[in-house]
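thread: overnight batch results

M.L. [08:02]
morning all. the overnight job finished for the chain we discussed friday. pasting input first so we're all looking at the same thing
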Amino acid sequence: MVLIAVSATPWPSALVIRSVFERGAESTVDEMTPYVPDTPLQTRSGVVYKPGGTFDVFTPESVTGPLPTIVWIHGGAWISGAQSDVEPYLRILAAQGYTTIGIGYPIAPEAVYPTAVEDINEALAYIKAHAGDLQVDSNRIVLAGDSAGAQLASQMATLTVNPEYANLLGVEPALQKQELVATILHCGVYDLQAMADLNGIAAWGFKTALWAYTGTKDWSDTYAGSTMSTVEFVTGDLPPTFISGGNGDGLTWLQSVPYRNRLRAAGVPVTELFWAANHEPALPHEYQFHLDFAEAREARDKTFDFLSDHAANSR
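M.L. [08:03]
and the structure it wrote out:
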């Protein structure tokens, strides 16, 4: 009876995976923190955009007006994580002259798809409605994310520019196409059918997380599996995109490189940062936050350049 109960629900396994991810996130925050510059920032933590939903805002103290704004969606395999996991990185970006916002959203198994998408859309609507108070230039929005957050960022971007996709989701996008100037995608998932074909322990973890997130074990054959697969909804209307992944991360070859290819084929301006398969050291999933790696610092600096080209006030 116990074995049947375990196999009939993703909860026990999902919570085990969550605990592992949470320990990893704490370690990564500690690694990023020494790289946060001394630039004085105004911090607004726990801004409530709906009951139970919050985001954190960082802006340079030296600027009082609206700034180009980076909205970052955290990772955690859709079953873990919080905006605090990316706080040091948002401080690093804010010090370059941006408003940065880390969004919290409902995670699984407690909340299932598409709740996170709907809540993030509500957060974006709140940010636009309170742009003046938050020092947000609502005509200069960058959607960014890492891992599961990159999937969600790509989904929110697709929702913004593709009316047919928005109709499939049944969501009225908070952003207008002209307000979204760029996306930043690290180590994401964009093709769920490719995930369904995986085998091994890593595959078990992802499949468990997706079961928990979508609410069904057969997620690859459902509305969730289809609409989460943003690779199938790429159009040339998507904004300039920075996309990256580590060579030691299987998702790079299975997800990020094919999505890069699809973006380019559609005519989307792409800035990429990938390494050869035999590059040493092998760069892991979420390598960009491991700033002790020279390659992560390269990704940070290329992100600065990308933002300067596509989001800065001088445009």
